[in-house]
Amino acid sequence: MKFLIIGLGSMGKRRIRNLTAMGETDIVGFDPREDRRAETVEKHGIPTFATVEEGLATGPDALVISTPPDAHMRYARLAVERDLHFFTEASVVDEDMQGLVDQLEGSGLVGAPSCTLRFFPVIKRFKQLLDDQAIGKPGAFTYHCGEYLPDWHPYEEVSEYYVGKVETGAAREIVPFELVWLTWLFGPVRNITALKGKRTDLPIDIDDVYQVIMEFESGVLGHMMIDVVARKYYREGRLVSEQGIIEWDCPGNLVRLYRAEDDSWQEFDESCDVPESFYVEELGAFVKAAKGEGAYPYSFAEDLRILRWLYEAEANGGAIQDGS
Question: Which CATH class is domain 117-273+307-319?
């Protein structure tokens, strides 16, 4: 297959690395920024273009859309118009996603929204333990995902890319990113609300903390804190039940299982020596689906439902008042 990477920022270059790791060699890229095109040529040696029309003229079989979230649907619709399979990074903006879902139905095209953490080794182990009923019926969890926003892209100011905009703000973007895997484990959301606010002095007008409370249709209760304030990277939590505890630490690649029946702890080290293995596995699932070798495990219909839960949480909740 031939792939056109739309957007050559950090994620676009990562997707080039992923495809290369899979043995794919027919890759071209598009980005309107000359500096990103030059860096991509220097690091990856692929042809790059200043317009999407030039990229499309090379005859790709699939698009990998790694633009800011508010441009995803524009290029997804272009892919459908050109009868091309496509993959998009994580979404936070709807922009008539229902129309895209309708277009894809019966088209034979593979439209694959990102679901990265479903491929993460720690999350897969967590899912296996739940499927095996290792702690019986899950009861409630608390989860924290945080990382200081200037540490995301140390090479550029937070005001210079999408994370500094209200609609695509960094903390807001991460809420649906996490819900993609939480609903995979615990099922659909029944009730959801959120408090949000700004707790940094960064020169951008976004909510940098989300406190989300959820009730799932399975009966599980959850609390999730998403922030871009923490000066240490966190993605960890604890699930409790009457029969035990599951703790997970994604940066540490560790899952810990406590069984009350024998008062014992068991640890699962999910470290992997393959760089970006879960990103490679995710994009590999898309490529297999595009080649007719399997089904991609996540759909735009599901993605739209996730986004609606974000919007419902915001509508049901409110802003945290500045106490200073």
Answer: alpha beta
At residue 2, what are phi and psi to the nearest 5 degrees?
Answer: -110, 135
61-80 tens-digit pLDDT: 999 999 999 999 999 999 99
3-state secondary structure of 104: helix
Query: What 3-state DSSP class applies to 193?
Result: strand
Instruction: Report the CATH superfamily, name and number, of domain 3-116+278-296.
Output: NAD(P)-binding Rossmann-like Domain (3.40.50.720)
- Pairs from 48-54 (Cβ < 8 Å, separation ≥ 24): 48/8, 52/6, 52/78, 54/30
| Span(s) in the chain for CATH 3.30.360.10 | 117-273+307-319
Given the structure tokens 């992997």, which residue do they identify?
272
- The whole-model pTM stands at 0.95
The candidate with the shortest Cα–Cα distance to 144, out of 255, 249, 254, 271, is: 249
Backbone φ and ψ of 262, nearest 5° = -125, 15
CATH 3.40.50.720 domain span(s) along the chain: 3-116+278-296
